[in-house]
Amino acid sequence: MGGDLLIIIFFFKETIAMHINVNDKTVEVFSGACVRDVLRKYSKITWTQMQKGSKAVFDGRGHEVALDGELSEGARLLIRRVRRQEPRS
Amino acid sequence: MSGAKRLVTGPLLLLGLLLAGLACFSCASAPPLAGDTRIVIFHFNDIHGKIDNFAKVAAIVGNERRGGGDVFLFCAGDNFTGNPVIDQYEPPGEPMLELLNRLGVDLLTPGNHEFDIGLENLKSFAARSRFPFISANISDGDASFPQLKPYVILEAKGGIRIAVFGVIQIEPGNGLPSTHPDKVKGLRFSEPLQAAIKMKKLRQGNQVFLALTHLGYAIDRKLAERLPQLDAIIGGHSHTRVDPAETVNGVLVAQAGSDNRFLGRVDLLVRNGRVVEKKGMLIDLKEWHEEDSEVKAMIVRFNQNPAFARVIAVAPFAIEGKEALGSLMTDSMRQLHNLDVAFQNEGGIRLNRLSEEITLKDVYTLDPFGNQVVEIAMSAEDIRSLIRDSFRKGNEIDLQVSGIRYTVRTDSERRIQSIELSGADGRPLPEDKVFKVGISSYVASSYNFSHKDPGRALNSTTAETLIHFLEGGADLSIYRNIQRAFQDPPGRNDRY
Fold this sequence. Notes:
The complex is a heterodimer of chains A (89) and B (496). Chain A is α+β, with helices and mostly antiparallel strands and 89 residues long. Chain A contains 3 helices and 5 strands; from the N terminus they run H-E-E-H-H-E-E-E. Chain A has a 4-stranded mixed β-sheet, covered by helices on one side. In chain A, strand 1 and strand 2 (25-29) form a beta hairpin. Chain B has 2 domains: 34-303, 4-Layer Sandwich (Purple Acid Phosphatase, chain A, domain 2), CATH 3.60.21.10; 310-488, 5'-nucleotidase,  domain 2, CATH 3.90.780. The longest helix of chain B is centred in the first third of the chain and has 27 residues, at 2-28. At the A-B interface, helix 1, helix 2 and strand 4 of A face helix 7, strand 12, strand 22, helix 12 and strand 27 of B.
Protein backbone atom coordinates (compact mmCIF):
# COMPACT_ATOMS: atom_id res chain seq x y z
CA MET A 1 0.00 0.00 0.00
CA GLY A 2 2.88 2.31 0.94
CA GLY A 3 4.50 1.43 -2.37
CA ASP A 4 1.30 2.24 -4.28
CA LEU A 5 1.13 5.62 -2.57
CA LEU A 6 4.71 6.41 -3.49
CA ILE A 7 4.06 5.49 -7.11
CA ILE A 8 0.97 7.70 -7.20
CA ILE A 9 2.83 10.66 -5.69
CA PHE A 10 5.63 10.28 -8.24
CA PHE A 11 3.11 10.08 -11.05
CA PHE A 12 1.31 13.25 -10.03
CA LYS A 13 4.60 15.10 -9.69
CA GLU A 14 5.36 14.34 -13.32
CA THR A 15 2.04 15.61 -14.65
CA ILE A 16 1.69 19.32 -15.31
CA ALA A 17 -1.36 20.77 -17.04
CA MET A 18 -0.96 23.23 -19.88
CA HIS A 19 -3.12 26.33 -19.94
CA ILE A 20 -3.66 27.76 -23.40
CA ASN A 21 -5.57 30.96 -24.03
CA VAL A 22 -7.92 30.63 -26.99
CA ASN A 23 -9.60 33.92 -27.89
CA ASP A 24 -11.03 34.97 -24.52
CA LYS A 25 -11.08 31.55 -22.86
CA THR A 26 -8.42 29.56 -21.01
CA VAL A 27 -8.35 25.88 -21.94
CA GLU A 28 -6.64 23.37 -19.67
CA VAL A 29 -5.17 20.46 -21.57
CA PHE A 30 -2.87 17.55 -20.96
CA SER A 31 0.84 18.14 -21.03
CA GLY A 32 2.17 17.68 -24.55
CA ALA A 33 -1.09 18.63 -26.28
CA CYS A 34 -0.86 20.22 -29.73
CA VAL A 35 -3.02 22.96 -31.28
CA ARG A 36 -5.53 20.40 -32.55
CA ASP A 37 -6.13 19.00 -29.05
CA VAL A 38 -6.73 22.47 -27.62
CA LEU A 39 -9.20 23.43 -30.33
CA ARG A 40 -11.20 20.21 -29.94
CA LYS A 41 -11.55 21.04 -26.29
CA TYR A 42 -12.25 24.70 -26.89
CA SER A 43 -15.35 24.25 -29.05
CA LYS A 44 -16.74 21.44 -31.18
CA ILE A 45 -18.32 23.93 -33.58
CA THR A 46 -15.08 25.84 -34.02
CA TRP A 47 -13.17 22.60 -34.49
CA THR A 48 -15.54 21.57 -37.28
CA GLN A 49 -15.11 24.98 -38.94
CA MET A 50 -11.33 24.59 -38.71
CA GLN A 51 -11.50 21.19 -40.39
CA LYS A 52 -13.62 22.65 -43.18
CA GLY A 53 -11.08 25.45 -43.64
CA SER A 54 -13.45 28.33 -42.96
CA LYS A 55 -11.48 29.28 -39.85
CA ALA A 56 -7.77 29.25 -39.12
CA VAL A 57 -5.72 29.62 -35.97
CA PHE A 58 -3.08 32.23 -35.29
CA ASP A 59 -0.68 32.93 -32.45
CA GLY A 60 -0.82 36.04 -30.29
CA ARG A 61 1.27 37.94 -32.88
CA GLY A 62 -1.07 37.11 -35.74
CA HIS A 63 1.06 34.41 -37.35
CA GLU A 64 -0.79 31.36 -38.58
CA VAL A 65 0.03 28.12 -36.79
CA ALA A 66 -0.60 24.59 -38.02
CA LEU A 67 -3.04 22.29 -36.23
CA ASP A 68 -0.21 19.94 -35.30
CA GLY A 69 1.82 22.83 -33.89
CA GLU A 70 3.39 22.14 -30.52
CA LEU A 71 2.53 24.36 -27.57
CA SER A 72 3.99 25.54 -24.33
CA GLU A 73 2.34 26.71 -21.12
CA GLY A 74 0.54 30.05 -21.45
CA ALA A 75 0.51 30.13 -25.25
CA ARG A 76 -2.13 32.34 -26.87
CA LEU A 77 -4.19 31.29 -29.87
CA LEU A 78 -6.64 33.35 -31.88
CA ILE A 79 -9.25 31.86 -34.19
CA ARG A 80 -10.24 33.87 -37.21
CA ARG A 81 -12.51 33.37 -40.15
CA VAL A 82 -10.58 32.97 -43.41
CA ARG A 83 -11.64 32.99 -47.02
CA ARG A 84 -9.87 29.88 -48.25
CA GLN A 85 -11.83 26.64 -48.28
CA GLU A 86 -8.96 24.14 -48.22
CA PRO A 87 -8.70 22.24 -44.96
CA ARG A 88 -5.61 22.87 -42.86
CA SER A 89 -3.52 19.98 -41.74
CA MET B 1 10.51 61.47 -87.71
CA SER B 2 7.62 60.03 -85.90
CA GLY B 3 9.11 56.60 -86.54
CA ALA B 4 12.37 57.70 -84.96
CA LYS B 5 10.44 59.07 -81.98
CA ARG B 6 8.78 55.74 -81.54
CA LEU B 7 12.15 54.00 -81.67
CA VAL B 8 13.55 56.29 -78.99
CA THR B 9 10.45 56.30 -76.83
CA GLY B 10 10.54 52.53 -76.27
CA PRO B 11 14.06 52.37 -74.80
CA LEU B 12 13.49 55.58 -72.81
CA LEU B 13 10.35 54.15 -71.32
CA LEU B 14 12.21 50.98 -70.42
CA LEU B 15 15.08 53.00 -68.93
CA GLY B 16 12.60 55.04 -66.92
CA LEU B 17 10.91 51.94 -65.60
CA LEU B 18 14.30 50.44 -64.75
CA LEU B 19 15.40 53.56 -62.87
CA ALA B 20 12.08 53.71 -61.05
CA GLY B 21 12.52 50.07 -60.14
CA LEU B 22 16.04 50.66 -58.87
CA ALA B 23 14.88 53.69 -56.90
CA CYS B 24 12.12 51.61 -55.38
CA PHE B 25 14.58 48.77 -54.57
CA SER B 26 16.91 51.27 -52.90
CA CYS B 27 14.05 52.35 -50.62
CA ALA B 28 14.08 48.86 -49.10
CA SER B 29 17.71 47.85 -49.55
CA ALA B 30 21.01 49.63 -49.04
CA PRO B 31 22.74 50.31 -52.37
CA PRO B 32 25.53 47.80 -52.93
CA LEU B 33 29.08 48.92 -52.19
CA ALA B 34 32.38 47.31 -53.04
CA GLY B 35 33.27 44.86 -50.32
CA ASP B 36 29.64 44.09 -49.42
CA THR B 37 28.78 40.45 -48.81
CA ARG B 38 25.26 39.26 -49.42
CA ILE B 39 24.35 36.03 -47.65
CA VAL B 40 21.25 33.98 -48.37
CA ILE B 41 20.09 31.40 -45.84
CA PHE B 42 17.27 29.11 -46.86
CA HIS B 43 15.64 27.29 -43.99
CA PHE B 44 12.94 24.76 -43.20
CA ASN B 45 11.59 23.22 -40.01
CA ASP B 46 9.05 20.64 -38.81
CA ILE B 47 8.93 18.70 -42.07
CA HIS B 48 7.56 15.68 -40.18
CA GLY B 49 8.23 13.25 -43.00
CA LYS B 50 6.45 15.34 -45.67
CA ILE B 51 9.11 15.01 -48.34
CA ASP B 52 7.14 15.71 -51.53
CA ASN B 53 8.13 19.39 -51.84
CA PHE B 54 11.84 18.70 -51.45
CA ALA B 55 12.13 18.54 -55.27
CA LYS B 56 11.01 22.19 -55.34
CA VAL B 57 13.33 23.10 -52.45
CA ALA B 58 16.23 21.55 -54.36
CA ALA B 59 15.36 23.59 -57.47
CA ILE B 60 15.12 26.87 -55.55
CA VAL B 61 18.32 26.37 -53.56
CA GLY B 62 20.16 24.99 -56.60
CA ASN B 63 19.23 28.02 -58.72
CA GLU B 64 20.53 30.38 -56.04
CA ARG B 65 23.74 28.41 -55.53
CA ARG B 66 24.45 28.36 -59.24
CA GLY B 67 24.42 32.16 -59.08
CA GLY B 68 27.70 31.91 -57.18
CA GLY B 69 26.61 33.75 -54.03
CA ASP B 70 26.97 32.76 -50.40
CA VAL B 71 24.01 30.45 -50.04
CA PHE B 72 23.30 28.20 -47.07
CA LEU B 73 20.53 25.77 -46.18
CA PHE B 74 19.59 25.30 -42.52
CA CYS B 75 17.23 22.78 -40.95
CA ALA B 76 15.58 23.76 -37.65
CA GLY B 77 14.58 20.25 -36.61
CA ASP B 78 11.70 17.76 -36.53
CA ASN B 79 12.22 15.93 -39.77
CA PHE B 80 10.53 12.76 -38.50
CA THR B 81 7.13 11.64 -37.19
CA GLY B 82 4.05 12.52 -39.17
CA ASN B 83 4.25 10.42 -42.32
CA PRO B 84 4.23 6.67 -41.67
CA VAL B 85 5.55 5.88 -45.15
CA ILE B 86 8.75 7.70 -44.27
CA ASP B 87 8.77 7.06 -40.54
CA GLN B 88 8.62 3.31 -41.04
CA TYR B 89 11.41 3.14 -43.59
CA GLU B 90 14.17 0.64 -43.02
CA PRO B 91 16.75 1.50 -41.96
CA PRO B 92 14.97 4.25 -39.94
CA GLY B 93 15.62 7.77 -41.15
CA GLU B 94 17.12 6.65 -44.46
CA PRO B 95 14.93 8.74 -46.82
CA MET B 96 15.53 11.89 -44.81
CA LEU B 97 19.26 11.25 -44.60
CA GLU B 98 19.60 10.78 -48.35
CA LEU B 99 17.42 13.78 -49.14
CA LEU B 100 19.09 16.20 -46.71
CA ASN B 101 22.51 15.14 -47.98
CA ARG B 102 21.36 15.59 -51.57
CA LEU B 103 19.84 19.01 -50.83
CA GLY B 104 23.17 20.11 -49.39
CA VAL B 105 21.94 21.02 -45.93
CA ASP B 106 24.69 22.94 -44.14
CA LEU B 107 23.44 22.68 -40.55
CA LEU B 108 20.79 20.89 -38.56
CA THR B 109 19.64 21.55 -35.04
CA PRO B 110 17.82 18.50 -33.69
CA GLY B 111 14.20 18.91 -32.69
CA ASN B 112 12.39 16.76 -30.16
CA HIS B 113 11.08 14.47 -32.92
CA GLU B 114 14.57 13.72 -34.26
CA PHE B 115 14.85 11.38 -31.28
CA ASP B 116 11.66 9.50 -32.19
CA ILE B 117 13.63 7.19 -34.48
CA GLY B 118 15.64 5.99 -31.47
CA LEU B 119 18.98 7.27 -30.22
CA GLU B 120 21.08 4.59 -31.90
CA ASN B 121 19.33 5.18 -35.22
CA LEU B 122 19.81 8.93 -34.84
CA LYS B 123 23.50 8.45 -34.10
CA SER B 124 23.80 6.38 -37.25
CA PHE B 125 21.91 9.11 -39.14
CA ALA B 126 24.29 11.76 -37.78
CA ALA B 127 27.37 9.71 -38.56
CA ARG B 128 26.36 9.46 -42.20
CA SER B 129 25.11 13.03 -42.60
CA ARG B 130 27.26 15.51 -44.51
CA PHE B 131 26.34 18.31 -42.14
CA PRO B 132 26.89 18.92 -38.43
CA PHE B 133 24.23 18.68 -35.73
CA ILE B 134 24.34 21.74 -33.49
CA SER B 135 22.83 22.14 -30.06
CA ALA B 136 24.29 24.07 -27.13
CA ASN B 137 21.98 22.46 -24.57
CA ILE B 138 22.55 18.79 -25.38
CA SER B 139 25.53 17.01 -23.94
CA ASP B 140 26.19 13.38 -24.66
CA GLY B 141 28.20 12.41 -21.60
CA ASP B 142 30.33 9.76 -23.22
CA ALA B 143 30.83 11.87 -26.37
CA SER B 144 29.37 9.13 -28.51
CA PHE B 145 26.96 11.27 -30.52
CA PRO B 146 28.61 11.91 -33.90
CA GLN B 147 28.61 15.40 -35.37
CA LEU B 148 27.05 17.03 -32.28
CA LYS B 149 28.55 20.45 -31.54
CA PRO B 150 27.20 23.45 -29.61
CA TYR B 151 27.97 25.77 -32.52
CA VAL B 152 29.81 26.01 -35.81
CA ILE B 153 31.52 28.82 -37.70
CA LEU B 154 30.64 28.94 -41.38
CA GLU B 155 32.62 31.02 -43.81
CA ALA B 156 31.36 33.24 -46.58
CA LYS B 157 33.30 35.04 -49.27
CA GLY B 158 35.64 37.79 -48.19
CA GLY B 159 36.50 35.97 -44.98
CA ILE B 160 33.11 36.68 -43.40
CA ARG B 161 32.59 34.40 -40.41
CA ILE B 162 29.07 33.22 -39.55
CA ALA B 163 28.71 31.82 -36.02
CA VAL B 164 25.63 29.67 -35.53
CA PHE B 165 24.60 27.85 -32.35
CA GLY B 166 21.66 25.51 -31.82
CA VAL B 167 19.23 24.91 -28.95
CA ILE B 168 16.33 22.51 -28.37
CA GLN B 169 13.19 22.87 -26.25
CA ILE B 170 12.71 20.90 -23.05
CA GLU B 171 9.53 20.16 -21.12
CA PRO B 172 9.06 21.92 -17.79
CA GLY B 173 8.03 18.67 -16.10
CA ASN B 174 10.93 16.34 -16.83
CA GLY B 175 13.53 18.60 -18.37
CA LEU B 176 13.62 16.49 -21.54
CA PRO B 177 12.58 17.26 -25.12
CA SER B 178 9.04 16.18 -26.02
CA THR B 179 9.82 12.61 -26.98
CA HIS B 180 9.62 9.32 -25.12
CA PRO B 181 12.17 9.50 -22.26
CA ASP B 182 13.65 6.15 -23.31
CA LYS B 183 14.64 7.72 -26.63
CA VAL B 184 17.03 10.21 -25.02
CA LYS B 185 18.59 7.99 -22.36
CA GLY B 186 22.25 8.87 -21.93
CA LEU B 187 21.87 12.44 -23.12
CA ARG B 188 21.70 15.46 -20.83
CA PHE B 189 19.70 18.58 -21.58
CA SER B 190 20.10 22.00 -20.00
CA GLU B 191 17.74 24.98 -19.93
CA PRO B 192 17.82 26.36 -23.51
CA LEU B 193 17.75 30.12 -22.87
CA GLN B 194 20.58 29.90 -20.34
CA ALA B 195 22.58 27.75 -22.74
CA ALA B 196 21.91 30.25 -25.52
CA ILE B 197 23.04 33.23 -23.45
CA LYS B 198 26.33 31.47 -22.76
CA MET B 199 26.89 31.57 -26.52
CA LYS B 200 27.10 35.39 -26.37
CA LYS B 201 30.88 35.06 -26.64
CA LEU B 202 30.43 34.08 -30.30
CA ARG B 203 29.61 37.68 -31.14
CA GLN B 204 33.31 38.46 -30.76
CA GLY B 205 35.29 37.93 -33.93
CA ASN B 206 32.35 36.81 -36.06
CA GLN B 207 30.66 39.19 -38.45
CA VAL B 208 27.38 37.27 -38.41
CA PHE B 209 25.86 35.73 -35.26
CA LEU B 210 22.85 33.41 -35.61
CA ALA B 211 20.78 30.99 -33.55
CA LEU B 212 19.22 27.92 -35.17
CA THR B 213 16.59 26.84 -32.68
CA HIS B 214 13.87 24.34 -31.97
CA LEU B 215 12.10 26.25 -29.21
CA GLY B 216 8.88 27.61 -30.72
CA TYR B 217 8.21 31.13 -31.92
CA ALA B 218 7.18 32.60 -28.56
CA ILE B 219 10.39 31.41 -26.92
CA ASP B 220 12.45 32.57 -29.90
CA ARG B 221 11.07 36.05 -29.22
CA LYS B 222 12.14 35.74 -25.58
CA LEU B 223 15.58 34.71 -26.76
CA ALA B 224 15.72 37.81 -28.95
CA GLU B 225 14.83 39.96 -25.92
CA ARG B 226 17.60 38.40 -23.86
CA LEU B 227 20.31 38.10 -26.49
CA PRO B 228 20.21 41.26 -28.64
CA GLN B 229 23.73 40.53 -29.87
CA LEU B 230 22.18 38.06 -32.32
CA ASP B 231 21.60 39.07 -35.91
CA ALA B 232 18.87 36.52 -36.49
CA ILE B 233 17.07 33.51 -35.02
CA ILE B 234 15.90 30.81 -37.38
CA GLY B 235 13.51 28.57 -35.51
CA GLY B 236 11.04 25.72 -35.44
CA HIS B 237 8.80 23.65 -33.14
CA SER B 238 5.60 25.72 -32.95
CA HIS B 239 4.83 25.31 -36.69
CA THR B 240 4.40 29.07 -37.00
CA ARG B 241 4.18 30.71 -40.40
CA VAL B 242 6.18 33.92 -39.86
CA ASP B 243 5.96 35.88 -43.08
CA PRO B 244 7.71 38.26 -43.24
CA ALA B 245 10.20 37.55 -40.47
CA GLU B 246 9.79 39.93 -37.55
CA THR B 247 12.44 42.05 -35.87
CA VAL B 248 12.40 41.75 -32.08
CA ASN B 249 14.82 43.87 -30.07
CA GLY B 250 16.87 44.29 -33.22
CA VAL B 251 17.00 40.53 -33.89
CA LEU B 252 15.33 39.05 -36.98
CA VAL B 253 13.13 36.10 -35.95
CA ALA B 254 12.09 33.63 -38.65
CA GLN B 255 10.15 30.37 -38.85
CA ALA B 256 8.79 28.55 -41.91
CA GLY B 257 5.51 26.92 -40.84
CA SER B 258 5.55 23.15 -41.10
CA ASP B 259 5.09 20.10 -43.32
CA ASN B 260 7.28 21.44 -46.14
CA ARG B 261 4.63 23.90 -47.28
CA PHE B 262 7.03 26.83 -47.15
CA LEU B 263 10.75 27.41 -47.61
CA GLY B 264 12.16 30.25 -45.52
CA ARG B 265 14.65 32.72 -46.96
CA VAL B 266 16.75 35.10 -44.89
CA ASP B 267 18.88 37.72 -46.67
CA LEU B 268 21.76 39.38 -44.83
CA LEU B 269 23.94 42.21 -46.08
CA VAL B 270 27.34 42.42 -44.39
CA ARG B 271 29.28 45.67 -44.70
CA ASN B 272 32.39 46.74 -42.83
CA GLY B 273 32.30 43.65 -40.67
CA ARG B 274 28.68 43.77 -39.52
CA VAL B 275 25.19 43.00 -40.71
CA VAL B 276 23.65 46.24 -41.93
CA GLU B 277 20.51 44.86 -43.50
CA LYS B 278 18.44 41.75 -42.86
CA LYS B 279 15.07 40.48 -43.98
CA GLY B 280 13.20 37.22 -44.07
CA MET B 281 10.29 35.89 -46.07
CA LEU B 282 8.64 32.59 -46.95
CA ILE B 283 8.38 30.98 -50.36
CA ASP B 284 5.01 29.26 -50.74
CA LEU B 285 5.99 25.95 -52.35
CA LYS B 286 2.46 25.43 -53.63
CA GLU B 287 3.07 28.35 -55.99
CA TRP B 288 6.43 27.04 -57.19
CA HIS B 289 6.46 24.65 -60.13
CA GLU B 290 10.10 23.94 -61.00
CA GLU B 291 11.39 20.67 -59.54
CA ASP B 292 14.80 19.01 -59.42
CA SER B 293 14.25 15.82 -61.40
CA GLU B 294 16.86 13.81 -59.51
CA VAL B 295 15.35 14.68 -56.14
CA LYS B 296 11.89 14.02 -57.55
CA ALA B 297 12.99 10.48 -58.50
CA MET B 298 14.29 9.92 -54.98
CA ILE B 299 10.95 11.03 -53.53
CA VAL B 300 9.02 8.67 -55.81
CA ARG B 301 11.30 5.82 -54.71
CA PHE B 302 10.90 6.59 -51.01
CA ASN B 303 7.14 6.89 -51.28
CA GLN B 304 7.03 3.30 -52.53
CA ASN B 305 8.37 2.14 -49.18
CA PRO B 306 8.66 -1.66 -49.42
CA ALA B 307 8.73 -1.92 -45.62
CA PHE B 308 5.10 -0.83 -45.58
CA ALA B 309 4.10 -4.24 -46.91
CA ARG B 310 6.22 -6.07 -44.32
CA VAL B 311 4.36 -8.64 -42.21
CA ILE B 312 4.92 -7.68 -38.57
CA ALA B 313 2.79 -10.40 -36.94
CA VAL B 314 0.90 -13.54 -37.88
CA ALA B 315 -2.36 -14.27 -36.09
CA PRO B 316 -3.86 -17.79 -35.93
CA PHE B 317 -7.05 -16.36 -37.46
CA ALA B 318 -8.33 -13.07 -38.83
CA ILE B 319 -9.10 -10.61 -36.02
CA GLU B 320 -12.58 -9.29 -36.66
CA GLY B 321 -14.99 -6.81 -35.16
CA LYS B 322 -14.64 -3.67 -33.08
CA GLU B 323 -14.52 -5.64 -29.82
CA ALA B 324 -11.58 -7.80 -30.87
CA LEU B 325 -9.70 -5.00 -32.64
CA GLY B 326 -10.40 -2.55 -29.81
CA SER B 327 -9.21 -5.13 -27.27
CA LEU B 328 -6.01 -5.62 -29.25
CA MET B 329 -5.39 -1.87 -29.50
CA THR B 330 -6.06 -1.21 -25.82
CA ASP B 331 -3.98 -4.21 -24.72
CA SER B 332 -1.06 -2.77 -26.66
CA MET B 333 -1.47 0.60 -24.94
CA ARG B 334 -1.82 -0.89 -21.49
CA GLN B 335 1.06 -3.31 -21.75
CA LEU B 336 3.60 -1.19 -23.58
CA HIS B 337 3.06 1.88 -21.43
CA ASN B 338 2.66 0.01 -18.15
CA LEU B 339 -0.88 1.28 -17.52
CA ASP B 340 -3.68 -0.21 -15.42
CA VAL B 341 -6.49 0.49 -17.86
CA ALA B 342 -6.72 1.61 -21.50
CA PHE B 343 -9.63 2.75 -23.66
CA GLN B 344 -10.12 3.06 -27.42
CA ASN B 345 -13.10 4.79 -29.00
CA GLU B 346 -14.82 2.86 -31.79
CA GLY B 347 -14.62 5.80 -34.18
CA GLY B 348 -10.86 5.42 -34.06
CA ILE B 349 -11.00 1.80 -35.23
CA ARG B 350 -11.04 2.17 -39.01
CA LEU B 351 -11.00 -1.47 -40.10
CA ASN B 352 -13.41 -4.27 -39.34
CA ARG B 353 -10.93 -7.06 -39.96
CA LEU B 354 -7.21 -7.72 -39.75
CA SER B 355 -6.20 -10.73 -41.82
CA GLU B 356 -3.87 -13.37 -40.40
CA GLU B 357 -0.76 -11.75 -41.86
CA ILE B 358 -0.68 -8.25 -40.37
CA THR B 359 1.41 -5.66 -42.21
CA LEU B 360 2.56 -2.18 -41.25
CA LYS B 361 0.11 -0.81 -43.77
CA ASP B 362 -2.73 -2.69 -42.04
CA VAL B 363 -1.91 -1.00 -38.74
CA TYR B 364 -1.93 2.48 -40.28
CA THR B 365 -5.19 1.69 -42.06
CA LEU B 366 -6.70 0.49 -38.78
CA ASP B 367 -5.40 3.55 -36.90
CA PRO B 368 -4.56 6.34 -39.35
CA PHE B 369 -5.01 9.44 -37.20
CA GLY B 370 -1.63 9.83 -35.54
CA ASN B 371 -3.20 10.23 -32.10
CA GLN B 372 -0.88 10.21 -29.12
CA VAL B 373 -1.30 7.93 -26.12
CA VAL B 374 -2.25 10.10 -23.13
CA GLU B 375 -1.88 8.87 -19.56
CA ILE B 376 -4.29 10.18 -16.94
CA ALA B 377 -4.63 9.24 -13.27
CA MET B 378 -8.32 8.43 -12.69
CA SER B 379 -10.49 7.11 -9.91
CA ALA B 380 -13.23 4.54 -10.50
CA GLU B 381 -15.75 7.40 -10.52
CA ASP B 382 -13.67 9.25 -13.13
CA ILE B 383 -13.66 6.12 -15.28
CA ARG B 384 -17.46 5.92 -14.96
CA SER B 385 -17.79 9.52 -16.07
CA LEU B 386 -15.70 8.77 -19.17
CA ILE B 387 -17.80 5.71 -19.99
CA ARG B 388 -20.99 7.71 -19.35
CA ASP B 389 -19.99 10.44 -21.80
CA SER B 390 -18.92 7.91 -24.42
CA PHE B 391 -22.16 5.96 -24.12
CA ARG B 392 -24.30 9.07 -24.46
CA LYS B 393 -22.79 9.83 -27.86
CA GLY B 394 -24.80 7.07 -29.51
CA ASN B 395 -26.62 5.24 -26.71
CA GLU B 396 -24.26 2.35 -27.43
CA ILE B 397 -20.96 1.02 -26.20
CA ASP B 398 -18.31 3.28 -27.69
CA LEU B 399 -15.17 2.56 -25.67
CA GLN B 400 -13.31 -0.73 -25.98
CA VAL B 401 -11.19 -1.47 -22.96
CA SER B 402 -8.22 -3.31 -21.50
CA GLY B 403 -7.47 -3.99 -17.84
CA ILE B 404 -11.07 -3.89 -16.67
CA ARG B 405 -14.53 -4.93 -17.79
CA TYR B 406 -17.60 -2.77 -17.59
CA THR B 407 -21.35 -3.02 -17.93
CA VAL B 408 -23.64 -0.10 -18.69
CA ARG B 409 -27.12 -0.80 -17.36
CA THR B 410 -29.89 1.21 -18.98
CA ASP B 411 -33.66 1.53 -18.81
CA SER B 412 -35.91 0.82 -21.75
CA GLU B 413 -35.20 4.30 -23.13
CA ARG B 414 -31.46 3.56 -23.01
CA ARG B 415 -30.93 6.04 -20.25
CA ILE B 416 -27.98 5.03 -18.09
CA GLN B 417 -29.00 3.60 -14.73
CA SER B 418 -25.61 2.41 -13.53
CA ILE B 419 -22.11 1.56 -14.70
CA GLU B 420 -20.45 -1.44 -13.09
CA LEU B 421 -16.70 -1.82 -13.22
CA SER B 422 -14.78 -4.99 -12.51
CA GLY B 423 -11.19 -6.07 -12.69
CA ALA B 424 -9.89 -8.80 -14.99
CA ASP B 425 -10.65 -11.25 -12.15
CA GLY B 426 -14.33 -10.26 -12.17
CA ARG B 427 -14.24 -8.57 -8.76
CA PRO B 428 -15.60 -5.02 -8.43
CA LEU B 429 -13.02 -2.33 -8.97
CA PRO B 430 -11.84 -0.70 -5.71
CA GLU B 431 -13.39 2.75 -5.38
CA ASP B 432 -10.49 4.26 -3.45
CA LYS B 433 -7.70 3.40 -5.88
CA VAL B 434 -6.22 5.72 -8.48
CA PHE B 435 -5.61 4.02 -11.83
CA LYS B 436 -3.15 4.87 -14.55
CA VAL B 437 -5.45 5.10 -17.55
CA GLY B 438 -4.38 5.32 -21.19
CA ILE B 439 -6.55 7.00 -23.81
CA SER B 440 -5.88 8.55 -27.20
CA SER B 441 -5.28 12.29 -27.48
CA TYR B 442 -8.58 12.43 -29.41
CA VAL B 443 -10.54 11.00 -26.48
CA ALA B 444 -8.59 13.17 -24.02
CA SER B 445 -9.55 16.35 -25.82
CA SER B 446 -13.01 15.48 -27.19
CA TYR B 447 -14.76 13.64 -24.36
CA ASN B 448 -16.17 15.32 -21.26
CA PHE B 449 -15.25 13.46 -18.10
CA SER B 450 -14.07 14.18 -14.59
CA HIS B 451 -10.36 13.91 -13.84
CA LYS B 452 -8.26 15.88 -11.41
CA ASP B 453 -5.07 14.92 -13.20
CA PRO B 454 -4.68 16.87 -16.47
CA GLY B 455 -2.76 13.97 -18.03
CA ARG B 456 0.31 13.86 -20.18
CA ALA B 457 1.11 12.72 -23.69
CA LEU B 458 3.46 9.75 -23.69
CA ASN B 459 5.12 10.83 -26.96
CA SER B 460 4.08 7.67 -28.73
CA THR B 461 1.19 7.33 -31.13
CA THR B 462 -1.44 4.65 -30.68
CA ALA B 463 -0.41 3.13 -34.04
CA GLU B 464 3.29 2.99 -33.10
CA THR B 465 2.29 1.39 -29.82
CA LEU B 466 0.34 -1.31 -31.64
CA ILE B 467 3.23 -1.94 -34.04
CA HIS B 468 5.65 -2.47 -31.15
CA PHE B 469 3.13 -4.72 -29.42
CA LEU B 470 2.70 -6.87 -32.54
CA GLU B 471 6.42 -6.96 -33.31
CA GLY B 472 7.06 -8.00 -29.71
CA GLY B 473 5.27 -11.29 -30.26
CA ALA B 474 1.90 -10.54 -28.67
CA ASP B 475 -0.37 -13.56 -28.12
CA LEU B 476 -3.02 -12.98 -30.77
CA SER B 477 -4.92 -16.19 -30.10
CA ILE B 478 -7.08 -14.45 -27.47
CA TYR B 479 -8.74 -12.03 -29.90
CA ARG B 480 -11.64 -14.23 -30.93
CA ASN B 481 -15.10 -13.99 -29.40
CA ILE B 482 -13.77 -11.42 -26.99
CA GLN B 483 -15.93 -8.84 -25.22
CA ARG B 484 -15.05 -6.65 -22.26
CA ALA B 485 -17.66 -3.88 -22.49
CA PHE B 486 -21.31 -4.82 -22.05
CA GLN B 487 -24.68 -3.18 -22.27
CA ASP B 488 -27.71 -4.40 -20.33
CA PRO B 489 -30.19 -4.81 -21.93
CA PRO B 490 -27.99 -5.63 -24.93
CA GLY B 491 -27.56 -2.98 -27.61
CA ARG B 492 -27.29 -3.26 -31.37
CA ASN B 493 -23.56 -3.91 -31.19
CA ASP B 494 -23.68 -6.70 -28.64
CA ARG B 495 -22.65 -9.95 -30.30
CA TYR B 496 -21.94 -12.39 -27.47
